[in-house]
Amino acid sequence: MDFKLIKRVQAYLLKGAIVFAILAGGTFTARAETKLFSLKNIHQNIIDDYKNVKHISRHKLIAALQKEDKDNYLIFDVREKDEYAVSHIKDAKLLPPSTWKSSFFRKFGDQIKGKQIIFYCSVGVRSSKMAKYLGQSLKEKGAKEIYNLEEGIFGWANQGAPLYKSDEKSQKQKIRVKREKLADKSHSQQVEKALNQTTKVHPYNNHWGQLINDETIRSYVP
């Protein structure tokens, strides 16, 4: 047996494996990062960072909003105005992340008592921070529970749950429909619903937008 030949072959194979690993390393790293960069993992980090904040799944919220007691929920969109304009959950109230506690209660204080309060943002970071910031004061004002929406509006959009827009064009269209006073009331309601609904969602930026599964629904404009 030629041991020198065997050693040369082993060395050649090892060298080839190292070169392959170097060349392919970028791909492997990218795949690993993609796997780690997920709404599920981000939500777990949020749970770790905001231990006193409760969370509600989109499935439970969707079910709750379809029931007769939907008026018991008060939903806040903790994003910026341009994000909210592209789309938001129906009846959600815009609450910019920079809102001070005094401003919040001056505007919404009389709506809190007896309500389930839901905060959401793109993935849940800004809304969890807001839930923590306002949580104790909300309880003192009579709120039943305070929740962050798990995986935010990105998870909501990925699920195909309904989104609504609030841009100037849709508002003008709504006014036009109302002025026409259509004889068929049910048809009028369907038209207004179609004008308001959208499939688009603001991606925040190109990096975070990758968490929206369907790239065709990512949009910076309504």
Structure description:
52% of the residues lie in helices and 11% in strands. The strands form 2 sheets. Strands 1-5-4-2-3 form a 5-stranded parallel beta sheet. The protein has a two-stranded antiparallel sheet with strand order 6-7. It is globular, with a radius of gyration of 25 Å. Among the domains are: 39-161, Rhodanese-like domain (Oxidized Rhodanese, domain 1, 3-Layer(aba) Sandwich); 166-197, no CATH class. It contains 9 helices and 7 strands. The longest helix has 34 residues, at 3-36. The protein is of the alpha/beta class. The model is unreliable at 3-32 (pLDDT under 50). Helix 8 packs antiparallel against helix 9.
Count of extended strands = 7
pLDDT < 50 runs, ≥5 residues? 3-32
CATH class of the domain at 39-161: Alpha Beta
Q: What share of the residues does DSSP label as strand, in percent?
A: 5-15%
**How many strands, what sense, and barrel or not for the largest sheet?**
5 strands, parallel
Helix and strand element order: HHEHEHEHEHEHEHHE
Say what the CATH topology of the domain at 39-161 is.
Oxidized Rhodanese, domain 1
Ordered list of secondary-structure elements with their pairings:
Layout: H1 3-36, H2 39-49, E1 54-56, H3 58-65, E2 73-77, H4 81-86, E3 93-94, H5 101-108, E4 116-120, H6 125-140, E5 145-149, H7 152-158, E6 163-164, H8 168-180, H9 185-196, E7 197-198
Parallel strand pairs: 1-5, 2-3, 2-4, 4-5
Antiparallel strand pairs: 6-7
Helix pairs in contact: 8-9
